[in-house]
Amino acid sequence: MEKIDLRLLKTRAEKEIEKSRSLKELDGIFKKYLGKKGEITQLFKSLKKLPEEKRAKIGREVNELKNFLKIRFDQKVEEIKEKIKRETEEKEWIDITLPGKKPVLGHLHPLTLVKRKIEEIFQVMGFKIVEGPEIETEWYNFDALNIPKEHPARDFWDTLYLKNSKLLLRTHTSPVQIRFMEKNQPPLRIIVPGRVFRHEATDASHEINFYQLEGLMVGKDISAANFRAIIEEFFKRFFQKNIKIRLRPSYFPFTEPSFEVDISCLVCQGKGCPACAHSGWVEMMGAGMVHPNVFKNSGLNPKFWQGFAFGLGLDRLVMMKYKISDIRLFYSGDLRFLNQF
Ligand code: FA5
After folding, report:
1. Domain count of the chain?
2. Does some domain include residue 101?
3. For position 297, what pLDDT does the model report?
4. How much is the pTM?
């Protein structure tokens, strides 16, 4: 065993330690030199074969080499651990100055927007907002509104009944007139926005599920002239311009006299389009003076009270406001349509 061997061994081991990239690799190198069967361990074992005068000197040198390499191994372990730590930190690093991900915000449906606007206008005119149930009894939806069983007027509304039940999906918001007058004494002014249902064929201006807005004003001397004034004022405030309206004589069992209110079509400016069935006019509401039997059925004396009621088609009003030519778009869930509001 010569001195030169030790020097070469040292350089080789040092180089290998330096080159190693992982703790596993380093452990392999450690075993190769300092493990049970490692080269340096073997050197110690072979010392005894040496003549005594050389043994002590070379023994010291091998020991120095062993201690030197041990230190190098420890240093390298620290180095690799430090590197791993740095890399993990880099991977997990979050830049808190980056702008966050924008959540997608929804917005109100055009029907809701318009409903709120209408409520605001009527509230300013002294009307109170009232709601009623969507599932109704025959009494409130028909009988109390002066539409007895077997009366042909029941066929005006193709009604959806609940299975094995006398309950139905309300065909209009008029039942809330009765519900409210049962519990409240005139003078009164209310509006009733709400969803109604009809078993009808759909087209550009008819849905099976749509919204109405009922209006009711009762007092000692409320007349049809008051109705016309209020409804004209409402349209003016809603569209922010004068609107051409027309009242046509009509028939509803719960009003006498009854009329239908049309406005000049705003989608086509009265020229004719699908939204107005090419007539230039859009039927916006049914209305009339509250029938004496309706007062009686609500527990009020028709000799003392009189007033008007109306039922506005909310969807049709929204169509006029935004120039929408097909009512079915409201319920289509199509974002290309909804995102425009
Ligand atoms: C009624 O429902 C009566 N209750 C209105 C009323 C109230 C009259 C108070 C007198 C006093 P009518 O069926 O005409 O009436 O409906 C009222 C309005 O709802 C219509 O003018 C129209 O604007 C709208 N409407 C009716 N059917 C549909 C439908 N299938 N789809 C969308 N809107 C409709």
Report:
1. 2
2. no
3. 98
4. 0.72
Report, as ranges of residue numbers, the positions in the chain whose pLDDT lies below 70: 1-4
How do residues 121-154 score in pLDDT, each as one tens digit?
999 999 999 999 999 999 999 999 999 888 877 7
- CA 285 to ligand 1: nearest atom: 21
Calpha distance 21→25 (Å, rounded): 7
Residue 2 has what pLDDT?
47
Strands 128-129 and 188-197: parallel
Ligand 1 within 6 A of CB of 194: no
Q: Does 78 reside within a domain?
A: yes
pLDDT of residue 93: 81
Does the beta carbon of 285 sit less than 6 angstroms from any atom of ligand 1? yes
Q: Which domain holds residue 140?
A: 110-338
- Residue 300 phi/psi, 5° resolution? -110, 150
- Measured in whole angstroms, the distance separating CA 76 from the mean position of its chain's CA atoms is 58
Ligand 1, atom 28: closest residue by C-alpha: 206
| Dist. CA 334 → ligand 1 center (Å) | 26
195 within ligand 1 shell (Cβ under 6 A):
no
- What span, in angstroms and rounded, lies between the C-alpha atoms of 192 and 169? 16
Is there an atom of ligand 1 within 6 Å of 282 CB? no
